[in-house]
Design goal:
The complex is a heterotrimer of chains A (327), B (277) and C (281). Chain A is an alpha/beta fold and 327 residues long. Helix content of chain A is 33%, strand content 29%. Chain A folds into two domains: 225 residues, P-loop containing nucleotide triphosphate hydrolases (Rossmann fold, 3-Layer(aba) Sandwich), CATH 3.40.50.300; 72 residues, Alpha-Beta Plaits (2-Layer Sandwich), CATH 3.30.70.260. In chain A, helix 3 packs across helix 4. The chains are: A alpha/beta (327), B mainly alpha (277), C mainly alpha (281). Chains in contact: A-C, B-C.
Chain lengths: 327, 277, 281
């Protein structure tokens, strides 16, 4: 029985993991501290190599931390790995991680046993899960013939078969078509609503936007930000981007005049396209439709060809926080 | 720039047609050498393979001694040395097209000026060297351990026969793997051919002992090369055996070329199979 | 087959109260049985099971039978059959048992196996035994076909002794596979090395070739290989009278392999978690 009533679902305290190869020492995790309450869905973001995978490996007891503590439902990942494993499932997805020569049903029966589910429960649980992830028609086909999306759904089912308290999800919608990805997001949301704690790692910020209530940002092994999704979205410092296309040579005028309009925080020339037209991006701190009228007046006599308005998204916030490092 | 002497076909094909065929050949052989060296580092892959080959040849030779005394040992020694080369040639040759399947690069091979079968054959050239090295390792180690070094040395003039057996082994390797690439039967196919060689080629079991064995063995690689070596060591003419072995090699190479063309067409028609584009 | 009932709590949200999900947990026997059955199924569907089991059995049998000049008596026939069975079984184990860990690593399921609720050693033991039972069954069936092809009539002095002997072969194969598999799983060249050790162990094991053919200085090495004792026992079990000493020695050696294998496996997993030496996903 877990002590979930008194403990956070995930709790990290000064967690550090150092990899040493000869004289090279890499601090993959550096003094990371945070906690996730039961039933919360938290997104873990960071550029490639930031330490996200190392963190999920430590939490899933695959890797020992160098120092610090990590607990799942109050159980220490180093001292009580069995208790942790009984409460946590990690879904890493991808082409690997399944027995390709076995059917989906056989894979789930085996992974269910690994997760500690008894035979009687497995008989009920496996068909139920196969139907939930939409694999009931293909349940008795070998996995080697599955598409990427079907494999991904089977990975999710394998993660859920043990009915874990805490689910670590790594790129859950990779390889899925938009409809399928949306369906999966719905399923995860349902799980979170049902009280499951989810730590989500994804480069698809749409997943984060739809599922997470809180965002953790990790950079060079250090936790740099821990904020609500709303606060994260506001980090970009602007609410909308206005892209103005003008005739050749008019870009400087647009930038100069736009800077005189209140509420535009950045005005920059993006470049010239193949037709010789210039493009200028104006970032608007607080979007209101009246701004377009003011902007129109400011740009009188400028040969404006097109104006597009795009709402700022999580990508922009992510780019600001990671200072333009690639995702 | 396209040269002024380019044909209409060349112009249609653009830069592709400007690569002289000899350059394509040289580049393909170079890639084959590069891939072989990367996939088979000397330590430990080649060393452990030589160890395996030496042990297997020793086992076969001693089985010959156990079955029919020293004469049986000599008989099996010759066969096991030849088997060492042919088996590794077949196995390594099977790996050549398998590599493209695994890496998903077959569609690029199809884009070459050379037909896929020719590409694979050229990339398999280092395999012949590996087979020859395996023969040498088996002859030297087992010869030394069982006191058959003089017999090994007396086999040296038979190098053309060894090379012919390696060629026929490579052709069979290329052929047998084609229909099963991308299926789960690749290892089964290679192992079946290897087992057939051990039993039917006359390497370890006298071919004349069983009529049926002789008939099957006649179309297998290695059989005529082994007969040629035995004839050579007995002071009998062996050129006819060399010719027969080369004929077997040519026949299997032709069948392999046909097989790759057929598999390629099937892939284009059905969108599935070993060589789907 | 099932263990005690356990439960997990789900926190309440909004109007929904906290709930507890109760589930009867799988015990070690269920885990062992499921892992063994899963490996058996995997083996049945893999062509290498037949490449190693059927082809090696028939190939070795052909060499031993067809190269003989004198006719075979039932005693020699049985010795050839047991020797061939052991050699082919070992060849199958190099693929079927030794490679289990390596394949799990390649397939990306090794991490799941060692982070499950069940003890990874219980799972691995189940898998190794599942693979060994299948390999021996394929070898024995192939040799039965070989007997029909070549018209061989083996003698069975003590069917019970032979049965005990083959049961020990399965145990011993699983123990040896655990040891070699755990040693090689971290090697980048595991395939090449395990292929390389297959033949010398058959050679030193005295299965196809009597140990008298080996030079005196290496015969002690043969006695560290359980196959050589198993061959001796199966010979006495079929030709009679039964000598139980070789069976005891084979069991003792198998226990030693298993003990070292467990030690190596545990160290390997500990090291992987500490130093990240394996890509466990």
């Amino acid at each position: 029985m877990s002590n979930v009533a008194t403990s956070p679902a995930i709790e990290l305290c000064g967690l550090t993991r150092i990899f040493a190869a000869g004289s090279d020492v890499v601090r993959a995790l550096d003094d990371v501290t945070f906690s996730v309450a039961p039933g919360e869905c938290v997104a873990l973001l960071g550029v490639n190599g930031a330490g996200k995978t190392t963190l999920t490996k430590v939490l899933s007891t695959l890797l020992l931390p160098t120092s610090g503590k990590a607990r799942i439902a109050g159980f220490d990942v180093v001292e009580q790995p069995r208790e942790v494993r009984a409460r946590l499932a990690a879904v890493f997805g991808g082409e690997r991680g399944l027995y390709s020569m076995l059917t989906a049903r056989e894979n789930l029966e085996y992974f269910g046993m690994l997760a500690g589910v008894g035979r009687r429960d497995l008989r009920l649980r496996v068909p139920e899960l196969l139907a939930e992830v939409g694999l009931d028609d293909a349940a008795d086909r070998r996995v080697e013939g599955y598409s990427k999306g079907m494999k991904q759904r089977l990975h999710i089912a394998a993660g859920l078969v043990g009915d874990p308290e805490v689910l670590l999800l790594d790129e859950p919608t990779v390889g899925l078509d938009p409809t399928e990805a949306d369906r999966l997001r719905g399923k995860i949301a349902q799980l979170v609503d049902g009280g499951m704690t989810v730590l989500l790692t994804s480069h698809y910020l749409l997943d984060v936007e739809r599922l997470a209530a809180r965002v953790l940002l990790i950079d060079h092994g250090r936790l740099t930000h821990d904020m609500s999704l709303r606060a994260f979205a506001a980090v970009a410092g602007y609410e909308a981007a206005v892209i103005v296309s003008v005739g050749e040579g008019a870009a400087d005028v647009v930038v100069r005049r736009a800077r005189e309009v209140g509420g535009i925080v950045v005005a920059k020339i993006d470049g010239t396209d193949g037709d010789g037209n210039d493009h200028v991006t104006l970032l608007v701190e607080r979007w209101q439709p009246e701004l377009l009228v003011v902007l129109g007046q400011a740009l009188t006599a400028v040969p404006v060809l097109d104006i597009q308005v795009r709402a700022a998204g999580l990508e922009e916030a992510f780019a600001v926080l990671t200072k333009g490092q690639s995702v | 720039m396209i040269s002024s002497e380019a044909t209409a076909d060349d112009r249609r094909l653009g830069a592709y047609a400007r690569v002289p065929i000899r350059e394509s050949v040289a580049a393909t052989v170079r890639l084959g050498v590069l891939l072989y060296r990367r996939e088979n580092p000397f330590r430990p892959v080649i060393l452990s393979e030589w160890f395996r080959v030496a042990c297997l040849s020793l086992l076969f030779t001693l089985l010959g001694v156990a079955a029919a005394g020293e004469a049986g040992g000599n008989f099996a020694f010759i066969g096991s040395v030849m088997l060492a080369g042919a088996e590794s040639t077949i196995g390594l040759m099977c790996d050549v097209p398998m590599r493209d399947r695994m890496d998903g690069t077959y569609w690029r091979v199809r884009g070459s000026r050379l037909p896929p079968c020719a590409t694979f054959a050229l990339r398999g050239i280092p395999v012949l060297g590996a087979g020859l090295a395996d023969c040498a390792v088996a002859a030297a180690t087992v010869g030394l351990l069982t006191g058959r070094l003089p017999l090994a040395i007396s086999m040296l003039p038979a190098v053309p026969l060894v090379l012919a057996s390696l060629l026929s082994g490579a052709a069979v390797g290329l052929f047998v793997i084609a229909p099963v690439i991308g299926t789960r039967y690749d290892t089964l196919t290679y192992n079946t051919v290897s087992s057939l060689l051990v039993v039917f080629s006359g390497a370890l079991v006298p071919r004349s002992a069983e009529g049926a064995l002789g008939a099957v063995g006649a179309v297998l690689p290695l059989t005529h090369a082994i007969e040629g070596i035995r004839a050579m060591l007995a002071g009998e003419p062996w050129l006819a055996d060399l010719g027969l072995e080369l004929l077997v090699a040519a026949a299997w190479a032709l069948i392999a070329a046909f097989m790759y063309t057929a598999m390629d067409r099937r892939g284009m028609k059905t969108g599935r199979g070993a060589f789907e584009a | 087959m099932n263990g005690a009932e356990t439960g997990i709590r789900r926190p309440g949200r909004g109007d929904r109260p906290e709930i507890e999900v109760r589930r009867r947990r799988a015990n070690a026997w269920f885990a062992f049985w499921t892992a063994g059955r899963m490996q058996f199924r995997l083996g049945l569907r893999h062509s290498m099971t037949y490449a190693a089991g059927v082809l090696n059995s028939l190939m070795f049998l052909s060499i031993l039978v067809l190269s003989r000049r004198e006719p075979l008596d039932p005693g020699s026939t049985t010795a050839i059959l047991t020797g061939t069975a052991l050699a082919a079984f070992w060849a199958s184990s190099v693929w079927g048992g030794v490679a289990i860990l390596r394949r799990e690593r390649w397939m990306g399921v090794f991490g799941r196996s060692i982070t499950g609720v069940q003890d990874p050693l219980v799972l691995l033991t189940g898998k190794l035994l599942g693979a060994s039972v299948l390999n021996l069954a394929v070898v024995v069936a192939s040799l039965a076909v070989g007997c029909l092809i070549f018209g061989l009539r083996p003698a069975f002095g003590s069917p019970l002794g032979a049965l005990l002997g083959f049961a020990t072969v399965v145990l011993s194969g699983a123990a040896a596979s655990l040891l070699v598999g755990a040693l090689l799983v971290v090697s980048r060249h595991g395939v090449a090395i395990s292929n390389a050790i297959g033949v010398p162990i058959s050679l030193l094991g005295g299965t196809l070739l009597p140990l008298t053919f080996l030079p005196e200085p290496v015969t002690w090495l043969s006695r560290l290989i359980s196959l050589s004792w198993l061959q001796d026992f199966l010979h006495t079990a079929t030709a009679g009278p039964i000598d139980w000493t070789p069976l005891g020695c084979a069991l003792a050696l198998s226990l030693a392999y298993a003990a070292i294998g467990v030690f190596v496996f545990r160290r390997m997993v500990d090291r992987a978690r500490r130093d990240a030496t394996l890509d466990l996903f």
